[in-house]
Amino acid sequence: MISVFLSACVTPTSETGTVSIRSLPKEAQSEYLLAPEDMIEVLVWKNESLSRIALIRPDGKITLPLLGDVEAAGLTPQKLSDKIKGRLQTYYKEPPDVFVAVTAVNSFSIFILGEVIEPGKQVLHSETTVLQAISLARGFNEYADPNNILLLRKEGAIEKRIRLSYRDILSGQHPEMNLLLKAGDTLVIP
Fold this sequence. Notes:
Layout: E1 9-12, E2 18-23, E3 39-44, E4 52-55, E5 61-64, E6 68-71, H1 77-88, E7 98-104, E8 109-114, E9 120-123, H2 130-136, E10 149-155, E11 158-164, H3 166-171, E12 186-189
Parallel strand pairs: 2-11, 8-12
Antiparallel strand pairs: 1-2, 3-4, 3-7, 5-6, 8-9, 10-11, 10-12
């Protein structure tokens, strides 16, 4: 089971939609949801011709023999396994044994922009905090304003803007600012 990363409890602070952190809720636990760019292996017991390693396409689907396109994004590996099993049922006398394994998590990426040594997309393979993400970008360059970091986070159709201060995180005054990042988060370092 992979945990869902923390969401900051935020409140608006200005007309621009920028928010500040008020408190940090408890971490929620959930099963991993498949997403585009993830690599999965579909194993159909005693049927190598139906078993496949598949990359989930940008449209969220995979293609399997006999079944064609199958929606995979947004499902847990178990739910996808059940879906494939159900669709294969018409070709079997008894329900087939289907197993779906995630072989590579490529969908969990963040973006780091602005005044860092190596800006760009970072594919993460474990929980990562703001400070760790800055480290992945090899730190700030000489033009950075590290005490005015902006975290852009999509929550449904809404984009939240969270202001963070490197100095406050390091000083221990606001350790809650060292948020766990979520897939799709963008850190902007002015």
